[in-house]
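tool_call predict_complex ligand=zinc ion
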Amino acid sequence: MKKKKHKNKKKWIHRAILALACLCILFGIYSLADHIIHPIRFQKKNVIVEYKEPYDAMDNVKSVFLGDKKDVKINKAINPKKKGSQTITYTYKNKSQDVTYQIKDTKAPTLKLRSIKTDTVGTPKALEFVEKVRDASKVKVTKQIENDKKQEGKYKVFITATDASGNSTKKETTLSRYNDTQAPTIKKANKIVGIVGQKINKNDITVIDDYDPNPKVKIDDSKVDYDNEGTYAIKYTVTDRSGNKRVLKRKVKLSLNDTDKYDKIVYLTFDDGPSDNTKKILKILKDNKVHATFFVTGTNQSKNDIIKKAYKQGNAIALHSYTHDYSIYTNEKTYMDDLKKIQDMVKKVTGHKSMIVRFPGGSSNSISKNYCKGIMTKLTHDLEAKGYQYHDWNVDSTDASGNNVPASQLVENATKTNGLDVVTILCHDTDAKNTTVEALPKIIKYYKENGYTFLPITSTSYAAHHGVTN
Ligand SMILES: [Zn+2]
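tool_result ok
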Protein backbone atom coordinates (compact mmCIF):
# COMPACT_ATOMS: atom_id res chain seq x y z
CA MET A 1 0.00 0.00 0.00
CA LYS A 2 2.73 2.41 0.99
CA LYS A 3 4.71 1.48 -2.11
CA LYS A 4 1.74 2.12 -4.38
CA LYS A 5 1.20 5.62 -2.91
CA HIS A 6 4.84 6.41 -3.51
CA LYS A 7 4.59 5.17 -7.08
CA ASN A 8 1.54 7.39 -7.72
CA LYS A 9 3.34 10.47 -6.41
CA LYS A 10 6.23 9.81 -8.76
CA LYS A 11 3.85 9.41 -11.67
CA TRP A 12 2.31 12.81 -10.92
CA ILE A 13 5.66 14.50 -10.79
CA HIS A 14 6.54 12.98 -14.14
CA ARG A 15 3.29 14.21 -15.61
CA ALA A 16 3.81 17.69 -14.23
CA ILE A 17 7.31 17.90 -15.68
CA LEU A 18 6.02 16.64 -18.99
CA ALA A 19 3.22 19.24 -18.99
CA LEU A 20 5.66 22.00 -18.13
CA ALA A 21 8.01 20.85 -20.87
CA CYS A 22 5.09 20.86 -23.33
CA LEU A 23 4.15 24.36 -22.22
CA CYS A 24 7.73 25.51 -22.66
CA ILE A 25 7.86 24.01 -26.12
CA LEU A 26 4.49 25.58 -27.01
CA PHE A 27 5.63 28.92 -25.72
CA GLY A 28 8.88 28.49 -27.65
CA ILE A 29 6.96 27.73 -30.81
CA TYR A 30 4.61 30.65 -30.21
CA SER A 31 7.50 32.96 -29.48
CA LEU A 32 9.38 31.80 -32.56
CA ALA A 33 6.30 32.28 -34.70
CA ASP A 34 5.76 35.74 -33.20
CA HIS A 35 9.39 36.62 -33.90
CA ILE A 36 8.99 35.47 -37.48
CA ILE A 37 5.72 37.33 -38.01
CA HIS A 38 6.82 40.42 -36.01
CA PRO A 39 10.59 40.49 -36.40
CA ILE A 40 11.03 44.08 -35.22
CA ARG A 41 11.49 44.57 -31.49
CA PHE A 42 10.88 48.04 -30.00
CA GLN A 43 12.26 49.83 -26.98
CA LYS A 44 8.77 50.92 -25.99
CA LYS A 45 5.26 50.20 -27.28
CA ASN A 46 3.70 53.28 -25.73
CA VAL A 47 5.77 56.32 -26.45
CA ILE A 48 5.03 59.91 -25.50
CA VAL A 49 6.85 62.36 -27.71
CA GLU A 50 7.34 65.85 -26.32
CA TYR A 51 5.57 68.49 -28.39
CA LYS A 52 7.93 70.39 -30.74
CA GLU A 53 10.94 68.36 -29.68
CA PRO A 54 12.61 66.34 -32.45
CA TYR A 55 12.11 62.58 -32.18
CA ASP A 56 13.57 60.03 -34.58
CA ALA A 57 11.16 57.09 -34.95
CA MET A 58 14.12 54.84 -35.78
CA ASP A 59 15.49 55.35 -32.27
CA ASN A 60 12.65 53.21 -30.97
CA VAL A 61 13.82 50.12 -32.89
CA LYS A 62 15.64 47.87 -30.42
CA SER A 63 16.56 44.92 -32.61
CA VAL A 64 15.42 42.72 -35.49
CA PHE A 65 15.02 38.98 -35.10
CA LEU A 66 17.69 37.32 -37.23
CA GLY A 67 18.21 40.61 -39.03
CA ASP A 68 19.75 44.05 -38.98
CA LYS A 69 18.18 47.24 -37.59
CA LYS A 70 19.49 49.09 -40.59
CA ASP A 71 17.14 47.24 -42.92
CA VAL A 72 14.02 48.55 -41.16
CA LYS A 73 12.13 51.20 -43.09
CA ILE A 74 9.49 53.68 -41.85
CA ASN A 75 6.62 55.09 -43.90
CA LYS A 76 7.07 58.64 -42.58
CA ALA A 77 8.78 60.69 -39.91
CA ILE A 78 7.09 61.80 -36.72
CA ASN A 79 5.87 65.39 -36.87
CA PRO A 80 6.46 66.72 -33.34
CA LYS A 81 4.69 69.98 -34.19
CA LYS A 82 1.34 68.18 -34.43
CA LYS A 83 -0.24 67.25 -31.13
CA GLY A 84 -2.21 63.99 -30.84
CA SER A 85 -1.50 60.43 -31.95
CA GLN A 86 0.57 59.46 -34.97
CA THR A 87 1.03 55.90 -36.19
CA ILE A 88 4.27 54.93 -37.83
CA THR A 89 4.50 51.77 -39.92
CA TYR A 90 7.83 49.95 -39.66
CA THR A 91 8.67 47.48 -42.43
CA TYR A 92 11.28 44.74 -42.47
CA LYS A 93 11.35 42.37 -45.47
CA ASN A 94 7.65 42.78 -46.36
CA LYS A 95 6.57 42.44 -42.74
CA SER A 96 4.95 45.54 -41.27
CA GLN A 97 4.41 46.59 -37.67
CA ASP A 98 2.65 49.71 -36.40
CA VAL A 99 3.59 51.80 -33.40
CA THR A 100 1.40 54.65 -32.27
CA TYR A 101 3.04 57.68 -30.73
CA GLN A 102 1.38 60.33 -28.56
CA ILE A 103 2.65 63.84 -29.22
CA LYS A 104 2.00 65.74 -26.03
CA ASP A 105 3.05 68.97 -24.40
CA THR A 106 4.03 67.90 -20.90
CA LYS A 107 6.70 70.45 -20.09
CA ALA A 108 5.87 73.54 -18.07
CA PRO A 109 7.30 76.87 -19.23
CA THR A 110 10.70 77.94 -17.96
CA LEU A 111 10.46 81.30 -16.26
CA LYS A 112 12.99 83.88 -15.18
CA LEU A 113 11.77 86.93 -13.27
CA ARG A 114 13.06 90.37 -12.42
CA SER A 115 12.15 92.62 -9.52
CA ILE A 116 10.65 96.01 -10.25
CA LYS A 117 10.89 99.42 -8.64
CA THR A 118 8.05 101.83 -9.15
CA ASP A 119 6.19 104.76 -7.60
CA THR A 120 3.15 104.47 -5.36
CA VAL A 121 0.77 105.03 -8.28
CA GLY A 122 1.47 102.61 -11.08
CA THR A 123 1.16 98.85 -11.15
CA PRO A 124 3.43 97.03 -13.58
CA LYS A 125 1.85 94.46 -15.86
CA ALA A 126 2.60 90.78 -15.25
CA LEU A 127 4.87 90.61 -18.31
CA GLU A 128 7.05 93.43 -17.00
CA PHE A 129 8.23 91.12 -14.22
CA VAL A 130 9.27 88.50 -16.76
CA GLU A 131 12.85 88.57 -17.91
CA LYS A 132 12.57 85.39 -19.91
CA VAL A 133 9.86 82.85 -20.55
CA ARG A 134 10.22 79.82 -22.80
CA ASP A 135 7.82 77.13 -23.89
CA ALA A 136 6.88 75.09 -26.94
CA SER A 137 3.48 76.79 -27.10
CA LYS A 138 1.94 80.15 -26.34
CA VAL A 139 2.27 81.22 -22.73
CA LYS A 140 -0.10 83.29 -20.62
CA VAL A 141 1.38 85.16 -17.71
CA THR A 142 -0.59 86.29 -14.67
CA LYS A 143 0.47 88.06 -11.52
CA GLN A 144 -0.63 88.36 -7.96
CA ILE A 145 0.79 91.04 -5.69
CA GLU A 146 0.53 90.18 -2.03
CA ASN A 147 -1.21 92.80 0.11
CA ASP A 148 -0.42 95.78 -2.16
CA LYS A 149 -1.09 98.95 -0.16
CA LYS A 150 0.25 101.34 -2.81
CA GLN A 151 2.55 102.82 -0.20
CA GLU A 152 6.32 102.81 0.12
CA GLY A 153 7.50 99.29 0.83
CA LYS A 154 8.46 95.92 -0.57
CA TYR A 155 5.77 93.53 -1.79
CA LYS A 156 5.88 89.86 -2.74
CA VAL A 157 4.77 89.17 -6.32
CA PHE A 158 3.79 85.74 -7.65
CA ILE A 159 4.01 85.24 -11.38
CA THR A 160 2.41 82.23 -13.05
CA ALA A 161 3.22 81.23 -16.60
CA THR A 162 0.76 78.77 -18.13
CA ASP A 163 1.18 77.18 -21.55
CA ALA A 164 -1.55 76.21 -24.04
CA SER A 165 -1.70 72.67 -22.58
CA GLY A 166 -2.20 73.89 -19.04
CA ASN A 167 1.32 73.19 -17.73
CA SER A 168 2.30 76.00 -15.43
CA THR A 169 5.25 77.40 -13.52
CA LYS A 170 4.92 79.77 -10.57
CA LYS A 171 7.73 81.91 -9.21
CA GLU A 172 8.18 84.72 -6.75
CA THR A 173 9.74 88.16 -7.13
CA THR A 174 9.39 91.61 -5.55
CA LEU A 175 7.83 94.97 -6.25
CA SER A 176 9.40 97.90 -4.42
CA ARG A 177 7.36 101.09 -4.17
CA TYR A 178 8.86 104.53 -3.55
CA ASN A 179 7.37 107.98 -3.19
CA ASP A 180 8.25 109.75 -6.45
CA THR A 181 9.35 113.34 -5.81
CA GLN A 182 11.40 113.80 -8.99
CA ALA A 183 9.95 115.69 -11.94
CA PRO A 184 10.43 114.16 -15.39
CA THR A 185 13.41 115.26 -17.45
CA ILE A 186 12.99 116.66 -20.93
CA LYS A 187 15.28 115.94 -23.84
CA LYS A 188 14.97 118.54 -26.56
CA ALA A 189 14.86 117.71 -30.23
CA ASN A 190 17.51 119.57 -32.23
CA LYS A 191 15.74 122.70 -33.25
CA ILE A 192 12.09 122.99 -33.90
CA VAL A 193 11.04 124.11 -37.27
CA GLY A 194 7.35 124.35 -37.89
CA ILE A 195 5.35 124.79 -41.00
CA VAL A 196 2.85 127.61 -41.43
CA GLY A 197 -0.65 126.26 -41.00
CA GLN A 198 0.49 123.07 -39.26
CA LYS A 199 0.07 122.55 -35.50
CA ILE A 200 3.31 121.93 -33.59
CA ASN A 201 3.66 118.31 -32.66
CA LYS A 202 4.07 117.95 -28.90
CA ASN A 203 5.97 114.72 -29.46
CA ASP A 204 9.04 116.50 -30.76
CA ILE A 205 10.43 116.49 -27.24
CA THR A 206 11.38 113.33 -25.39
CA VAL A 207 10.25 113.07 -21.79
CA ILE A 208 11.83 110.62 -19.38
CA ASP A 209 10.62 109.89 -15.89
CA ASP A 210 12.19 107.59 -13.33
CA TYR A 211 8.94 105.66 -12.80
CA ASP A 212 6.13 106.87 -15.07
CA PRO A 213 6.54 105.42 -18.55
CA ASN A 214 4.11 107.95 -20.05
CA PRO A 215 4.30 111.37 -18.41
CA LYS A 216 1.70 113.82 -19.70
CA VAL A 217 2.85 116.55 -22.06
CA LYS A 218 0.91 119.79 -22.46
CA ILE A 219 1.94 122.40 -24.95
CA ASP A 220 1.03 126.07 -24.69
CA ASP A 221 1.22 127.50 -28.19
CA SER A 222 -1.18 130.41 -27.61
CA LYS A 223 1.49 132.89 -28.72
CA VAL A 224 2.02 131.17 -32.07
CA ASP A 225 0.50 132.77 -35.14
CA TYR A 226 0.05 129.69 -37.30
CA ASP A 227 -0.93 131.82 -40.30
CA ASN A 228 2.39 133.64 -40.62
CA GLU A 229 6.10 132.91 -40.82
CA GLY A 230 8.07 133.94 -37.74
CA THR A 231 9.70 132.87 -34.50
CA TYR A 232 7.37 132.26 -31.56
CA ALA A 233 7.64 131.27 -27.92
CA ILE A 234 6.02 128.04 -26.77
CA LYS A 235 5.81 126.36 -23.39
CA TYR A 236 5.70 122.67 -22.55
CA THR A 237 4.47 121.38 -19.20
CA VAL A 238 5.21 117.77 -18.40
CA THR A 239 3.70 115.99 -15.42
CA ASP A 240 4.31 112.48 -14.12
CA ARG A 241 1.58 110.35 -12.56
CA SER A 242 2.76 111.29 -9.05
CA GLY A 243 2.09 114.94 -9.90
CA ASN A 244 5.69 116.19 -10.30
CA LYS A 245 5.89 118.92 -12.91
CA ARG A 246 8.53 120.42 -15.19
CA VAL A 247 8.24 123.37 -17.56
CA LEU A 248 10.25 124.00 -20.72
CA LYS A 249 10.13 127.24 -22.66
CA ARG A 250 11.52 127.35 -26.17
CA LYS A 251 11.23 129.08 -29.49
CA VAL A 252 9.82 127.69 -32.67
CA LYS A 253 10.48 128.97 -36.14
CA LEU A 254 7.57 128.70 -38.54
CA SER A 255 8.30 128.78 -42.22
CA LEU A 256 6.33 128.25 -45.38
CA ASN A 257 6.01 124.82 -46.82
CA ASP A 258 8.04 124.21 -50.01
CA THR A 259 4.80 123.79 -51.86
CA ASP A 260 3.72 127.29 -50.86
CA LYS A 261 6.91 128.78 -52.25
CA TYR A 262 7.07 127.19 -55.66
CA ASP A 263 4.49 126.40 -58.30
CA LYS A 264 5.99 123.14 -59.44
CA ILE A 265 8.47 121.01 -57.53
CA VAL A 266 10.31 117.80 -58.31
CA TYR A 267 12.06 115.72 -55.66
CA LEU A 268 14.50 113.35 -57.31
CA THR A 269 15.12 110.47 -54.93
CA PHE A 270 17.68 107.67 -55.02
CA ASP A 271 17.29 104.61 -52.81
CA ASP A 272 19.79 101.97 -51.67
CA GLY A 273 23.07 103.90 -52.12
CA PRO A 274 25.91 104.52 -51.78
CA SER A 275 27.24 102.58 -54.77
CA ASP A 276 29.72 102.67 -57.61
CA ASN A 277 27.23 104.89 -59.44
CA THR A 278 26.81 107.59 -56.76
CA LYS A 279 29.79 109.55 -58.04
CA LYS A 280 28.36 109.65 -61.58
CA ILE A 281 24.95 110.71 -60.29
CA LEU A 282 26.52 113.54 -58.26
CA LYS A 283 28.41 114.75 -61.32
CA ILE A 284 25.19 114.92 -63.36
CA LEU A 285 23.34 116.73 -60.54
CA LYS A 286 26.20 119.21 -60.22
CA ASP A 287 26.46 119.82 -63.96
CA ASN A 288 22.74 120.53 -64.06
CA LYS A 289 22.81 122.62 -60.86
CA VAL A 290 20.05 120.58 -59.22
CA HIS A 291 19.72 118.74 -55.93
CA ALA A 292 18.30 115.35 -55.01
CA THR A 293 17.66 113.18 -51.98
CA PHE A 294 19.58 109.98 -51.23
CA PHE A 295 17.81 107.44 -49.02
CA VAL A 296 20.88 105.53 -47.96
CA THR A 297 21.57 102.16 -46.37
CA GLY A 298 24.34 100.83 -44.15
CA THR A 299 25.19 97.94 -46.46
CA ASN A 300 28.02 99.58 -48.39
CA GLN A 301 29.84 101.60 -45.75
CA SER A 302 33.24 101.48 -47.44
CA LYS A 303 31.70 104.03 -49.81
CA ASN A 304 30.40 106.38 -47.11
CA ASP A 305 32.80 109.12 -48.22
CA ILE A 306 30.64 109.67 -51.26
CA ILE A 307 27.62 110.27 -48.98
CA LYS A 308 29.57 113.06 -47.34
CA LYS A 309 30.34 114.50 -50.74
CA ALA A 310 26.68 114.30 -51.76
CA TYR A 311 25.68 116.13 -48.59
CA LYS A 312 28.30 118.86 -49.10
CA GLN A 313 27.01 119.31 -52.63
CA GLY A 314 23.63 120.33 -51.20
CA ASN A 315 21.76 117.08 -51.54
CA ALA A 316 19.65 115.64 -48.74
CA ILE A 317 20.84 112.46 -47.06
CA ALA A 318 17.88 110.61 -45.62
CA LEU A 319 17.18 107.28 -43.96
CA HIS A 320 16.27 104.12 -45.86
CA SER A 321 17.47 101.16 -43.77
CA TYR A 322 20.65 99.97 -42.13
CA THR A 323 20.35 96.37 -43.29
CA HIS A 324 17.66 96.68 -45.97
CA ASP A 325 16.49 93.26 -44.84
CA TYR A 326 12.71 92.90 -44.65
CA SER A 327 13.04 91.17 -41.30
CA ILE A 328 13.24 94.71 -39.86
CA TYR A 329 9.42 94.50 -40.11
CA THR A 330 9.31 91.72 -37.49
CA ASN A 331 8.10 94.16 -34.86
CA GLU A 332 8.27 97.85 -33.91
CA LYS A 333 11.50 97.35 -31.98
CA THR A 334 13.36 95.60 -34.80
CA TYR A 335 12.32 98.40 -37.14
CA MET A 336 13.22 101.23 -34.77
CA ASP A 337 16.58 99.60 -33.91
CA ASP A 338 17.46 99.43 -37.59
CA LEU A 339 16.30 103.01 -38.16
CA LYS A 340 18.36 104.26 -35.22
CA LYS A 341 21.44 102.56 -36.68
CA ILE A 342 21.10 104.21 -40.08
CA GLN A 343 20.27 107.52 -38.41
CA ASP A 344 23.46 107.25 -36.33
CA MET A 345 25.47 106.33 -39.40
CA VAL A 346 24.17 109.33 -41.36
CA LYS A 347 24.80 111.59 -38.37
CA LYS A 348 28.38 110.33 -38.21
CA VAL A 349 28.96 110.90 -41.91
CA THR A 350 27.19 114.25 -42.40
CA GLY A 351 27.00 115.64 -38.87
CA HIS A 352 23.25 116.05 -39.38
CA LYS A 353 20.54 114.00 -37.68
CA SER A 354 18.01 113.16 -40.38
CA MET A 355 14.35 112.68 -39.53
CA ILE A 356 13.36 111.92 -43.14
CA VAL A 357 12.57 108.28 -43.82
CA ARG A 358 11.70 106.02 -46.71
CA PHE A 359 10.50 102.53 -45.83
CA PRO A 360 12.09 99.66 -47.77
CA GLY A 361 9.31 98.79 -50.22
CA GLY A 362 7.46 102.02 -49.40
CA SER A 363 4.71 102.43 -46.81
CA SER A 364 2.35 100.43 -49.04
CA ASN A 365 4.56 97.34 -49.18
CA SER A 366 2.83 94.05 -48.46
CA ILE A 367 6.01 91.98 -47.96
CA SER A 368 5.99 93.19 -44.34
CA LYS A 369 2.83 91.07 -43.87
CA ASN A 370 5.08 88.00 -43.99
CA TYR A 371 6.83 89.31 -40.88
CA CYS A 372 4.11 91.04 -38.89
CA LYS A 373 0.48 91.77 -39.58
CA GLY A 374 -0.41 95.46 -39.25
CA ILE A 375 3.21 96.56 -38.80
CA MET A 376 3.06 99.34 -41.42
CA THR A 377 -0.01 100.84 -39.77
CA LYS A 378 1.86 100.93 -36.47
CA LEU A 379 5.15 102.18 -37.92
CA THR A 380 3.67 105.02 -39.98
CA HIS A 381 1.88 106.19 -36.86
CA ASP A 382 4.93 105.71 -34.61
CA LEU A 383 7.26 107.61 -36.93
CA GLU A 384 4.96 110.60 -37.16
CA ALA A 385 4.44 110.62 -33.41
CA LYS A 386 8.23 110.63 -32.94
CA GLY A 387 8.66 113.59 -35.28
CA TYR A 388 9.89 111.64 -38.33
CA GLN A 389 8.47 112.16 -41.79
CA TYR A 390 8.22 109.28 -44.21
CA HIS A 391 8.24 109.78 -47.95
CA ASP A 392 6.95 107.46 -50.64
CA TRP A 393 6.87 108.49 -54.32
CA ASN A 394 4.24 109.40 -56.86
CA VAL A 395 6.30 108.80 -60.00
CA ASP A 396 8.31 105.60 -60.47
CA SER A 397 11.21 105.38 -62.91
CA THR A 398 10.68 101.58 -62.62
CA ASP A 399 14.42 101.00 -62.46
CA ALA A 400 13.77 98.46 -59.71
CA SER A 401 11.86 96.21 -62.12
CA GLY A 402 15.15 94.79 -63.40
CA ASN A 403 18.74 95.65 -64.13
CA ASN A 404 19.49 97.48 -67.35
CA VAL A 405 15.92 98.53 -68.09
CA PRO A 406 16.54 100.61 -71.24
CA ALA A 407 17.27 104.24 -70.40
CA SER A 408 14.58 105.38 -72.84
CA GLN A 409 12.02 103.34 -70.88
CA LEU A 410 13.18 104.90 -67.59
CA VAL A 411 12.95 108.42 -69.04
CA GLU A 412 9.44 107.71 -70.27
CA ASN A 413 8.28 106.40 -66.88
CA ALA A 414 10.06 109.04 -64.81
CA THR A 415 8.37 111.82 -66.76
CA LYS A 416 4.81 110.45 -66.49
CA THR A 417 3.63 113.16 -64.09
CA ASN A 418 -0.10 112.69 -64.64
CA GLY A 419 -0.52 116.42 -64.18
CA LEU A 420 1.08 116.53 -60.72
CA ASP A 421 2.69 119.80 -59.64
CA VAL A 422 4.69 118.21 -56.84
CA VAL A 423 6.51 115.15 -58.05
CA THR A 424 8.59 112.66 -56.07
CA ILE A 425 10.48 110.34 -58.42
CA LEU A 426 11.75 106.95 -57.30
CA CYS A 427 15.17 105.94 -58.66
CA HIS A 428 17.84 103.60 -57.36
CA ASP A 429 21.52 104.11 -56.69
CA THR A 430 23.17 100.70 -56.90
CA ASP A 431 26.12 99.22 -58.79
CA ALA A 432 23.79 97.53 -61.27
CA LYS A 433 21.63 100.55 -62.17
CA ASN A 434 23.78 101.91 -64.98
CA THR A 435 20.82 102.82 -67.17
CA THR A 436 19.43 105.00 -64.36
CA VAL A 437 22.59 107.09 -64.62
CA GLU A 438 22.20 107.11 -68.39
CA ALA A 439 18.57 108.26 -68.16
CA LEU A 440 19.16 110.96 -65.54
CA PRO A 441 20.19 113.92 -67.77
CA LYS A 442 17.08 113.48 -69.92
CA ILE A 443 14.80 113.23 -66.87
CA ILE A 444 16.29 116.45 -65.48
CA LYS A 445 15.93 118.16 -68.86
CA TYR A 446 12.24 117.29 -69.04
CA TYR A 447 11.41 118.76 -65.63
CA LYS A 448 13.46 121.89 -66.25
CA GLU A 449 11.70 122.48 -69.53
CA ASN A 450 8.34 122.04 -67.85
CA GLY A 451 8.92 124.66 -65.15
CA TYR A 452 9.71 122.44 -62.15
CA THR A 453 12.11 123.43 -59.35
CA PHE A 454 14.42 120.67 -58.11
CA LEU A 455 14.57 120.53 -54.32
CA PRO A 456 16.13 118.18 -51.79
CA ILE A 457 13.61 116.83 -49.28
CA THR A 458 13.53 118.73 -45.97
CA SER A 459 11.17 118.81 -43.02
CA THR A 460 9.02 121.37 -44.84
CA SER A 461 8.68 119.29 -48.00
CA TYR A 462 5.47 117.75 -49.21
CA ALA A 463 5.52 114.04 -48.38
CA ALA A 464 3.98 111.73 -50.96
CA HIS A 465 2.18 108.85 -49.23
CA HIS A 466 0.92 105.69 -50.86
CA GLY A 467 -1.57 104.51 -48.26
CA VAL A 468 -0.80 101.61 -46.00
CA THR A 469 -1.93 98.10 -46.96
CA ASN A 470 -0.64 96.22 -43.94
ZN1 LIG B 1 15.33 100.03 -51.12
